[in-house]
C-alpha cells in the first residue's frame, strides 16, 4: 500500500524513535508498504518517521543511481535498529540533497564519505558493514530521520534563511508533488 509521506513541519519528523522487536505488529506488511511508498515517490530511501511511525526502521535502494555512483549497485536493504558511526577520514564533501519530506527543495549538505553501520535485516539477522561514497550519504540522510534531524538542519544558516518561505509553505501544506502527503496543517 502506498502510504502518505509526512512533510517538513510535521512533529513526527522530530520525535525520538524507538527500537523495534521481532514481534512488532504487522512488521512484514509495514516494510512492504514502505517499499511501495518509496518506489511510488521515486525515492532511494525512506525512514519510518516519514510515514508517521517514530520507530527505527529504514528501507533504501540506491540501485537506480549505480551508473553515476557504482557503490549504490545492489544496495537494496532493510535497516532495523541501525547504529551508525561516521568515520571522519578526510574532509566532508558537499553535495546536493533532496528529501521526500521536503519536496521541491535541494540544498548542499556536507557529510563525511565513510560510515560503519550495524543493523538488523527484516529477518532480524545482524549485519555490520562499512559504506562509502554516495551510498554512505543516503544512509546518513535516512539515519538522520531516526534522530529527529531533517537535512535542512545541516545546511548553512544563510541558505536556510533563503529557503525559509519554501519550508514554511511546505509545513502549511502549500506544496505540490507527485505523491501522497500528510502535512502538519492537515
What count of helical segments does DSSP give?
3
Named CATH architecture: Alpha-Beta Complex
Shape: globular
Number of strands: 9
Q: What radius of gyration results from the CA coordinates?
A: 16 Å
The CATH topology label is Peptide Deformylase
Rounded mean pLDDT score: 96
Tally of distinct domains: 1
The CATH class label is: Alpha Beta
What percent of the residues sit in helical stretches (DSSP H or I)? 10-25%
- Sheet/helix structural class: alpha+beta
3D architecture notes:
The chain is an alpha+beta fold. It has a single domain, classed as Alpha-Beta Complex (Peptide Deformylase), CATH 3.90.45. It is 23% helix and 28% strand. The chain contains three helices and nine strands; from the N terminus they run βαβββββββααβ. It has helices at residues 27-40, 133-146, 157-171; strands spanning 5-6, 45-47, 57-60, 77-86, 93-99, 102-111, 114-120, 126-132, 181-182. A five-stranded antiparallel sheet has the order 2-3-4-7-8. The protein has a two-stranded parallel ribbon with strand order 1-9. Strands 5-6 form a two-stranded antiparallel sheet. β5 and β6 (102-111) form a beta hairpin. The radius of gyration is 16 Å and the shape is globular. The two termini are 21 Å apart.
